[in-house]
């Protein structure tokens, strides 16, 4: 799992919550990698240094963000974009998110889930949650509307729920991982142009097929739901009919 977000977003707190340990702290603008057992599995978490606005993020921080992918070879299965609950995202913050996420690769969104976080003692109302989600719509659209609300320091069941969502995303991506952008750049400089174009063509085709199957699955689910709704009155009528047939015949002498 790769944690990304602005300065002060709460990435280190999220890392501690996931791994259940307190010694997870950023080290002078460097990436930090830790591993632990979570819900019976080994989980690797990489915490990246926080970014600033597009204009003020240093070259060093940008390079650390790019290098973060190489700390979990062959690549991370999931990127968690940490967004603190409270004040809705501004247009400047949304621009910074898009810019810094795509330092990894434009394909990074395919592996991304937005993680809205709050402290356990700072519960947000449903109205505040809806406002946050509404202001993050353009970001959520880029990552297939995948998101999770996490109260740090709360019950372990929240982490189990988060891992289930991550598992679903990994399965949807056919257990692929994010290949570092530097590898793509290397391939493009060493491979013939025809090969790189063919690779891009197959990647685009794969993405289109996945989207097509998702759309078809959703349509089938809607059809099944509609069919069940239409069948409910018929089932009730059949039950009433069968019940009336089981009643003993009435007698005029009763």
From TrEMBL:
Pfam families: AIG1
Similarity comment text for this entry: Belongs to the TRAFAC class TrmE-Era-EngA-EngB-Septin-like GTPase superfamily. AIG1/Toc34/Toc159-like paraseptin GTPase family. IAN subfamily.
GO molecular function per UniProt: GTP binding
Organism: Hucho hucho
Basic and acidic residues bias locations: 220-238
Higher taxonomy: Eukaryota, Metazoa, Chordata, Craniata, Vertebrata
Protein known as: AIG1-type G domain-containing protein
Disordered as annotated region, ranges: 220-254
Domain AIG1-type G: residue ranges: 1-187
Gene3D superfamilies: P-loop containing nucleotide triphosphate hydrolases
Keywords noted in UniProt: GTP-binding, Nucleotide-binding
């Amino acid at each position: 799992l790769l944690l990304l977000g602005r300065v002060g977003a709460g990435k280190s707190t999220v890392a501690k919550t996931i791994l259940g340990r307190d010694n997870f702290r950023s080290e002078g603008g460097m990436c930090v990698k830790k591993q632990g057992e979570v819900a019976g599995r080994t989980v690797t978490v990489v915490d990246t240094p926080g970014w600033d606005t597009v204009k003020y993020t240093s070259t060093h921080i940008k390079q650390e963000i790019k290098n973060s992918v190489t700390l979990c070879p062959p690549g991370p299965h999931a990127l968690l974009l940490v967004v603190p609950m409270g004040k809705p995202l501004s247009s400047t913050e949304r621009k910074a998110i898009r810019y810094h996420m795509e330092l990894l690769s434009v394909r990074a969104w395919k592996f991304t889930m937005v993680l809205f976080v709050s402290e356990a003692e700072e519960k947000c109302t449903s109205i505040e949650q809806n406002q946050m989600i509404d202001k993050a719509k353009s970001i959520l659209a880029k990552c297939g509307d995948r998101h999770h609300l996490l109260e740090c320091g709360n019950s372990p069941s929240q982490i189990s729920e988060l891992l289930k969502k991550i598992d679903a995303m990994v399965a949807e991506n056919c257990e692929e991982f994010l290949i570092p952008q530097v590898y793509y750049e290397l391939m493009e400089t060493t491979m013939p142009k025809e090969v790189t174009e063919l690779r891009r063509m197959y990647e685009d085709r794969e993405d289109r097929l996945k989207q097509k199957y998702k759309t078809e699955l959703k349509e089938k689910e809607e059809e099944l739901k509609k069919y069940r709704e239409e069948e409910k009155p018929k089932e009730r009528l059949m039950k009433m009919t069968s019940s009336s047939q089981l009643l003993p015949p009435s007698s005029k002498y009763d």
